[in-house]
Amino acid sequence: MLTGAGVSAESGVPTFRDALTGLWAQFDPQQLATPAAFETNPKLVWDWYEYRRSLVSKVKPNAGHYAIAALEDMLPHVAVVTQNIDGLHQAAGSSDVITLHGDITRHKCFANCQGDPTMIDITTLEWDQEAGPPPCPHCGAYVRPDVVWFTERLPVDALDRANALSGKADVMLIVGTSGVVQPAAQMPYRAKRFNGAYLIDVNPEQNAHTAIVDLHLDGPSGEVLPQVIKAMRDLP
Ligand code: APR
């Protein structure tokens, strides 16, 4: 599976730009989602991510996420390579989720003082929450969200695994992604080129992958994927 923002649309997850509403409307994402922005104004960036984290904590997986998780019981191995940072695949029960762009519910040391990444569980920390991000308990640098910011490289382990799995996939379902953000967008090409994978695109809109897939299933993933599961269960 390769998934993007569309799979979470029916859960009501605000996209990056949609989350810039209300108090946040005056900002440009590039002002907030970069290491330089965090260094310049850690409290501002921290508060924006805390706001988004609170939004995400209120949403639930939808029928599309659950259908993807259910595929694990029907196929030899299902891996989910996702560009989403909302944790909804894991919440729905998918056990092998590769988070290419990180996860807004996780945190790490800005200096990665104990190795890259140095994950920090902020529920174990006590700090003045009005003041901004907590200090890393190891080195005192700020703690930051474990998401990929503009100008940053994707996590090496996640990208390596996504590339390897794509290259040996028999089937790739491409769900809810516009297919324009690299390197995620190249995964279907790898699957096709290295293993002749059968590509299926689930999306209510034409997108960058539509022209190369073997099958385009037109519709919202929360409706289409449960039908796919049902059809598979009905197979003789
Ligand atoms: N079901 C399936 N697909 C849907 C649905 C739905 N209910 N609703 C919308 N879509 C499709 C849209 O038609 C579009 O093709 O989801 C896609 C969303 O595209 P993007 O917003 O570009 O999301 P994504 O491809 O995940 O973007 C990649 O870009 O903004 C950055 O880092 C961010 O991870 C994100 C990356």
Specify the overall morphology.
globular
Instruction: Compute the separation of the termini in Å.
Output: 24 Å
Order of helices and strands: EHHHHHEHEEEEHEHEEH
Oligomer: single chain
- Give a quick account of the main beta sheet: strands, pairing sense, barrel closure: 6 strands, parallel
Number of discrete helical segments: 9
Class based on secondary structure composition and strand pairing: alpha/beta
Total DSSP E strands: 9
Would you identify the regions where 5 or more consecutive residues have pLDDT less than 50? none
Strand content: 15-25%
Catalogue the ligands: adenosine-5-diphosphoribose
Mean pLDDT level: 94
Strand line-up in the sheet with most strands: 3-2-1-7-8-9
Notes on the structure:
The model has no long low-confidence stretch (mean pLDDT 94). Helix 6 (88-92) links the parallel strand 2 and strand 3 (97-99). The protein has helices at residues 5-9, 29-32, 35-40, 42-57, 63-70, 88-92, 156-167, 187-195, 221-233; strands at residues 2-3, 80-82, 97-99, 102-109, 119-120, 143-147, 171-175, 198-202, 215-217. The protein is globular and about 60 Å long. Strands 3-2-1-7-8-9 form a 6-stranded parallel beta sheet, sandwiched between helices. It has a 3-stranded antiparallel beta sheet with strand order 5-4-6. With 236 residues, it is α/β, with parallel strands linked by helices. The site of adenosine-5-diphosphoribose has 21 residues, from helix 1 and helix 9. Adenosine-5-diphosphoribose binds at residues 4-6, 9-10, 15-16, 83, 101, 176-178, 181, 202-205, 207, 220-222.
